[in-house]
Design brief:
This protein has 247 residues and is of the alpha+beta class. It has 9 helices and 10 strands. The protein has 3 domains: 69 residues, Orthogonal Bundle (Arc Repressor Mutant, subunit A); 80 residues, YebC, transcriptional regulation domain (Alpha-Beta Plaits, 2-Layer Sandwich); 69 residues, 2-Layer Sandwich (Alpha-Beta Plaits), CATH 3.30.70. The N terminus is likely disordered.
Length: 247
């Protein structure tokens, strides 16, 4: 698939994955809470919750944590009430940035996001400023060990996938927005080991950021480090030579 999320690959290369900063379980738990609140606790009838629980299991999140998050979402136990808010802006070289958040205090969140942009050379924009640059897709990560590539791709297409990529020992299956949960269910019911299942945004065009790499990465790191931020998307690429020089 052309125009896949270069920022995801760059994060992996520079060792800034969510799990290494201790935020992965918090982000997954918030997604489970929202999914359970909106659609109930039954993963068989609540497709969004099913996908979130699959991601939690793929990340080795303790079963007890998953169950508590579901109960917080359904109100069986007390917990914080979150709302989803998306922000849009620009980084260096006009790179488009989308920030998805879950927050219990939107005034705090927008202040934090605005501060990160202003301190690190970006600009917070209006709603709709850059969202048109991205297509919303489903992305399902499945371990490729022991799976024949041709057979897997044919089966993925039969399940309703649009495309499949191989990245770092994983098959990444892309779907359109409406088929995502159906495809997650098909892989799950057919015994595939799902590492992650989530909605994502794929940029339609990519901007080279070699000349502003260090500044841009600092901005994106700062945004991702914010407590209320779930995901950050950006439409840029950095060459391997520049990345290696950054260490």
């Amino acid at each position: 698939m052309s125009g896949h999320n270069k920022w995801s690959q760059i994060k992996h290369k520079k060792g800034a994955a969510d799990a290494r900063r201790g935020k992965l379980f918090t982000r997954i738990a918030r997604e489970i809470i929202i999914a359970a609140r909106e659609g109930g606790s039954d993963i068989n009838s609540n497709s969004r919750l099913r996908a979130a629980v699959q991601t939690a299991r793929g990340a080795n999140m303790p079963k007890d944590n998953i169950e508590k998050a579901i109960k917080r979402g359904t109100g069986e136990i007390d917990g914080i009430t979150y709302e989803e808010i998306t922000y849009e802006g620009y980084g260096h070289n006009g790179v488009a940035i989308i920030i998805e958040t879950m927050t219990d205090n939107k005034n705090r969140t927008v202040a934090d996001v605005r501060h990160a942009f202003s301190k690190h050379g970006g600009n917070l924009g209006e709603n709709g400023a850059v969202s048109w640059i991205f297509d919303q897709k489903g992305a399902i990560e499945i371990k490729s060990d022991g799976l024949d590539e041709d057979d897997f791709m044919l089966q993925a297409l039969d399940f309703g996938a649009e495309d499949v990529e191989i990245q770092d020992g994983l098959y990444v299956v892309y779907t359109n927005l409406t088929d995502f949960y159906k495809v997650v269910t098909a892989f799950d019911e057919n015994g595939f080991s799902i590492e992650k299942a989530e909605l994502t945004r794929i940029p339609k065009n990519i901007i080279n950021a070699d000349d502003v790499a260090e500044k841009l990465l600092k901005l994106l790191d700062k945004l991702e480090d914010l407590d209320d931020v779930q995901k950050v998307y950006a439409n840029f690429e950095i060459s391997d030579d520049v990345m290696n020089n950054l260490g």
